[in-house]
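W.,

You were right to be curious about this one. When I first looked at the sequence I had no strong expectations either way, so I just let the prediction run and decided to look at it fresh. Below is the sequence, 421 residues in total, followed by the output.
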Amino acid sequence: MNYLSETIAIESIREKASERDILIWGAGNQGRGICQILQDNGIALKGFVDRSQEMIGKRVMGLTVYGPEILDTLKDIFVIISVFFYEREISKKCEARGMVKGEDYISYSQLKSRDYSIDVSGACNLKCLSCPRSSRLSEERSPGFMSLNRFEMVLDKIKSEDPFVGNIQLYQWGEPTLNRELPEMIQYAHKKGIKCAISSNLNANVDYRQIIEARPEWFRVSASGWGKNYEIAHTRGDWDRFFKNLQIVSSLRNEFYPDMKIELYYHLYKHSTGESLHKFQNLCADYAVEFHPVYAYLISLDDVLAYKEGIPLPPTAVKASEMMLFDLDEGLDMAFREASLPCDVFRSIHINWDLSVSNCMMYYYPEGNTAADNYLDIAIDEIMKRRLTCSLCKRCIRHGMHRYCGVYSTRDLNIENLISP
């Protein structure tokens, strides 16, 4: 990809801003991170563009969030695409309006060469069926938590090597709210000019007030069914606790940080459609939570790649796949047909709680998936060089597995059909 240096990118956008309205497409964590960097550099912005009906009309970071139709009403505009996962889709929408890449819009991959995730917790309180934590209980990674001191050193290194980084996610395989120093970590990130995204199953017995007071920018909540149906795939989860904590987090957001985006990532299984889906849709509307339903799929890719190479799935993964609406083999076939497209997550640097760096954030187990034992000891360019020669990466691409998650996450949904099949 043709990355721009941070200095060139900022000065190019500054020049555009002198004669055009600058819009950031995507009001989530990535968009807010880019907004933070540009505002810190004194660049005036018109606002955000977002397709989410829950976001349109709101103000985020002092800017109005518009629907995509704003592109048809303004004449002199320049769009910054801040949603990497949907970059190709949004680029096509810009070009359909006669916009030229580089002249009228800039893609996320041009603007930022790397994103970062830090798993501040190596532990989780649930054993969800589609997650590797339930598929091989006897082969767990060692649990633990990143300390605040180490987190500060990690963030300092990130900013020294990638000064354009304005957002990070503080989760991947662990439950971040279990780390008692999470509020202080978020606060330190703020001092470094970095917005934080966290994700939670809302089943932990923690002080959500302290977390929300620290002002994370984006709070993802996961669920998969209403009432007792919730507890089927969110194994060990308790519906009443989840429901109560969702109300608490929503209330705390309203009290301490109304701009915080709460997204409910709703996993669609056979048991979570129909009435369950309809109730969650209404619940999100009632609590001003962005509703994001997505087809459930097996994650991590360890078991899925093994399955593709002829090894049977573990029993829990078999059970989960039998409950899915979107067949595993169908998903793998669709991913293989996209094998010529680039990997969506190679740009992501995933740092585990113990400071090890994964070759790929979508694989859970460390064997064959460790680019560095200690992120603090190795320059980012060397880490990227090691990842380029990773044998796991080559196996994954050979089967088109690098497109697997995307075909589930971006597949079109007809909510009304799923509510009333």
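Here's what jumped out at me. The chain has two domains: 6-111, 115-419. And, maybe more interesting for your project: The longest strand covers residues 261-268.

Coffee later to discuss?

I.
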